[in-house]
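pasting for ref. prot 1 ->
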Amino acid sequence: MLREFTNNVTRWDTLLFQRIFGWGDRRFLTRSFRLISWSANGYLYPFIALYVFIKFEATISRPFLISAFVAFPIKGLLYQFLKQSMKRDRPCEKINEVNFRVRPPDRFSFPSGHTASAFLMMVILTRFFPFLQIPALLWAATVGIARVHLGVHYPSDVLAGALLGISTAHIGILFAM
């Protein structure tokens, strides 16, 4: 029963991956997805924190910063644990016709760290700045789609990354309140 479930998930995961990856290597689309993917690398997060620290009063900036400073290390530890435990090969390693469109940051696929970071930041941003809900959600979701289109993650890697980011963001927020 468990084997059948796992086989079904793998089959659907591969089919959905091929559908998204199959959008083709169109120059504009691929460049856009590379840029969106890059935005979740982590380089921009310190600037967001600095902006919030400078621009907003302590009643908002302090819990925002505490949430982020607690959530990101927890996410990092859980991410590394899952990555090393699962050791899932990337689609570009497993599927013959797939070449990555962006260089993978490491060897294994599960979970998506870019997606985890994007969803973590999305939850913290929207908790303290509710008017950002729609743009932040669209950005985080697009990061996940980009990672699949670029050939470095399966959809289930992205889903796991989103759940990891959301969960650790809520831990950070609880710690700050």
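and prot 2 ->
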Amino acid sequence: MRAKIYTPARNAMQSGQAKTGGWVFEYAPVAPKRTDPLMGWSGSKGATNQLRLNFDTKEAAIAYAESKGVEYDVVESTSRARKPIIRKMGYAENFVPDRRMPWTH
């Protein structure tokens, strides 16, 4: 059995960077998916392709794979980390709990 360890890409609907720093351990599919002729549902032979484990670090995911005796491939991300944009006196400044000036219209 083989597994893939990678960092997930952020969702296209997200603008933030939350939950993008972790690593995912996922088994490779054992057999291709097949379609049931009667109902049209798709299924596969093994249940391991439904298993997806999240880890904080790459080393933790590798240690898990080695402890279970699973061969693995590490896929490094090619995208660069985005620099946060923080504007002084921007729109978010209106909602800071410890404002320096009172907020009035």
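The radius of gyration is 22 Å.
The mean pLDDT is 82.
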